[in-house]
Amino acid sequence: MGKLSDTSINKIKEISRRYPTSESALLPALYVAQREKGWLAKEIMDEVADALDLPRVRVYGVATFYTMYYKKPMGKYVIQVCTNVSCMINGGEEIFGHLKKKFGIKSGETTGDGLFSILEVECLGNCGNAPVMQVNEDFYENLTIEAVDEIIDSLKKKK
């Protein structure tokens, strides 16, 4: 995995200047790095630590704590499906099971073509419109299996 671009390093330093301490800029800085590389390899986390002048272990601790930061390569489209109580009651587990069967992969895995990764997540914070899923930064609610298939088909057409 290559290094972060100068653009990302500069963005991380710019973000750092907006916060009282560089540590408080860590979450958005990791997001900048992940957005460029798709996931956070150890050497990328080291670059973030160096850019923020933080101990590397602090950056590893934060990056590994939050599930929104990927510690391995992911597909072009990362599909997160909530299976917590409200979503479970309204079909979230069935939707996640449908995706596992459709793609032939388990939670945390990526399809052979590198297009889709699926993650079963605890909560996406939208219980009132359950079941919900998130694809990269797009959010979908009140889902049915048919709606999920339409979303997947539209993503395949975009490639």
Summarize the helices and strands and which ones pair or pack.
Layout (H helix, E strand, L loop, with lengths): L5 H12 L8 H12 L4 H11 L3 H10 L11 E6 L2 H5 L2 H12 L12 E6 L11 E3 L2 E3 L4 H14 L1
Parallel strand pairs: 1-2
Antiparallel strand pairs: 1-3, 3-4
Question: What features would you describe in this structure?
Answer:
Its EC number is 1.6.5.11. Pfam families: 2Fe-2S_thioredx (PF01257). This protein has 159 residues and is α+β, with helices and mostly antiparallel strands. A hairpin with a 2-residue loop joins strand 3 and strand 4 (138-140). The longest helix is centred in the last third of the chain and has 14 residues, at 145-158. It has helices at 6-17, 26-37, 42-52, 56-65, 85-89, 92-103, 145-158; strands at residues 77-82, 116-121, 133-135, 138-140. It is 48% helix and 11% strand. It has a four-stranded mixed β-sheet with strand order 2-1-3-4, covered by helices on one side. The mean pLDDT is 95. Helix 1 runs antiparallel to helix 2 (26-37) and helix 3 crosses helix 4.
